[in-house]
Amino acid sequence: MKMGSKIRTMFRENETLREMIPGMLAYGLVIQIIVAVFFPLRLYRAIGLWAGILCGVAMAVHMAFCLEKIVMLDEKGATAYARKTTLLRYGCVCLVLILIAFLKVGDPVTMVLGILGLKIGAYLQPVVHSIIRKFSHKHDSEEGE
């Protein structure tokens, strides 16, 4: 199975992941507006922010893949695998952060703010879930009439 089809399957099957990403994107838009209004070098800061949001989305997808495998392993294997994949994620994010800072293509501070979108997306997931549920129930009741 190709990686693209694995990711599509992951999005179809993992409701939580589907609901986290809109929260991350909404957070990114709010931070983008704040940065655009109050800080100079808008493009530099925007590149850093959206690189961070993209890293956060990639981390969320990778975590979802890893959790599927972790539940199949015994306790010792699951712990070792979780440590290894966590270090891999953090290492990749650190590498991107260093590249952004070294090449001066984006703001490392706003990149960190973007990466924090992963946490904000997790906090907003129940809100997004209830909004989706509310609209899907309205849509279902309209079809029944």
Account of the 3D structure:
There is one protein chain. The chain has a domain at 41-123. The protein has six helices and no strands. It has helices spanning 3-13, 15-38, 42-70, 75-103, 108-115, 117-144. Helix 2 runs antiparallel to helix 3 (42-70) and helix 3 (42-70) packs antiparallel against helix 4 (75-103). The mean pLDDT is 90.
Write the layout of secondary structure elements.
Blueprint: H1 3-13, H2 15-38, H3 42-70, H4 75-103, H5 108-115, H6 117-144
Helix pairs in contact: 2-3, 2-6, 3-4, 3-5
Q: What is the typical, i.e. mean, pLDDT?
A: 90
Order of helices and strands: HHHHHH
Shape label = flat
Quick one: how many beta strands? Answer: 0
Give the termini distance in whole angstroms.
42 Å
The SS-based structural class is mainly alpha
Task: Please report which band the strand proportion falls in: under 5%, 5-15%, 15-25%, 25-35%, 35-45% or over 45%.
Answer: under 5%
Radius of gyration: 18 Å
**Structure annotation, total helices:** 6
Q: What's the main sheet like?
A: none
| Unreliable residue stretches | none
What share of the residues lie within helices?
over 70%
